[in-house]
């Protein structure tokens, strides 16, 4: 069993709550209120700013040029991801400057600072595990939702689903997973596995809270 599969299997309930969250399901079938999606998109842009910093931190903590390049590629993928957010928000009259000036909400701060703290206080593996639920989870969600676009030309969230189901993001997620699995040294994994599970579980729960934050913004 790969390291990622072992982590995921240990937090099955939390992973399902994250990847099958009502926000995700409503987004997939096109019934998600636009106000909730807008709030999510603004907060996710702010999240990606911190996520980019986390990938830059991963490059700094890397010991080989190959790992530095991998982190640089991941950083580039995050920057590309922000282009979708800017394009969609500009269609609502929200420019990049307004996005960057928006205040971070509680779940945004909690998640991003947790990931950065894992990177600052731990090693490269701790940071990779903290990043994994976002990168790999979004790829899983994109793949699962993509069939719902078939025959739905006017699906309001076609661009979002297409972004995360697309070849570029899927490739970035696959690379992240392969590198994470390659770190699974037997003795190290045996000693640290429960610590890594705890990091993975916390990051997954924070992802779920991030979805819920957007739904709550519409309902409040």
Spell out the blueprint of helices and strands.
Elements: H1 3-10, H2 12-19, H3 22-29, H4 34-61, H5 65-90, H6 96-101, H7 106-121, H8 124-145, H9 158-165, H10 167-182, H11 186-219
Helix pairs in contact: 1-11, 2-11, 4-5, 4-7, 4-8, 4-11, 5-10, 7-8, 7-11, 8-9, 8-10, 8-11
Give the tally of structural domains.
1
Within CATH, the superfamily carries the name Heme oxygenase-like
Highest-level CATH class: Mainly Alpha
Shape: globular
How far apart the termini lie comes to 43 Å
Q: State the CATH topology.
A: Heme Oxygenase, Chain A
The sequence of SSEs as H and E is: HHHHHHHHHHH
Annotation keywords:
single chain; 220 residues; Heme Oxygenase, Chain A; globular
Structure description:
With 220 residues, the chain is mostly helical. The protein has a single domain, classed as Up-down Bundle (Heme Oxygenase, Chain A), CATH 1.20.910. It has helices at residues 3-10, 12-19, 22-29, 34-61, 65-90, 96-101, 106-121, 124-145, 158-165, 167-182, 186-219. The chain starts with a helix and ends with a helix. The mean pLDDT is 93.
């Amino acid at each position: 069993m790969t390291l990622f599969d072992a982590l995921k299997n240990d937090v099955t309930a939390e992973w399902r709550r994250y990847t099958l969250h009502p926000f995700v399901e409503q987004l997939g079938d096109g019934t998600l209120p636009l106000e909730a999606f807008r709030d999510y998109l603004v907060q996710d842009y702010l999240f990606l700013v911190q996520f980019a910093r986390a990938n830059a931190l991963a490059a700094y903590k890397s010991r080989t040029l190959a790992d530095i390049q991998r982190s640089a590629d991941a950083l580039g993928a995050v920057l590309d991801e922000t282009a979708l957010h800017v394009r969609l928000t500009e269609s609502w009259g929200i420019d990049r400057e307004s996005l960057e000036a928006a205040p971070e909400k509680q779940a945004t701060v909690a998640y991003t600072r947790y990931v950065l703290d894992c990177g600052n206080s731990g090693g490269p593996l701790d940071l990779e595990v903290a990043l994994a639920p976002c990168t790999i989870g979004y790829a899983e969600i994109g793949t699962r939702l993509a069939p719902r676009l078939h025959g739905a030309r006017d699906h309001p969230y076609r661009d979002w689903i297409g972004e995360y189901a697309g070849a570029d993001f899927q490739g970035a997620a696959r690379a992240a997973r392969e590198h994470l699995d390659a770190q699974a040294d037997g003795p190290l994994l045996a000693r640290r596995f429960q610590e890594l599970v705890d990091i993975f579980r916390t990051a997954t729960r924070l992802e779920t809270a991030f979805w819920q934050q957007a739904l709550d913004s519409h309902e409040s």
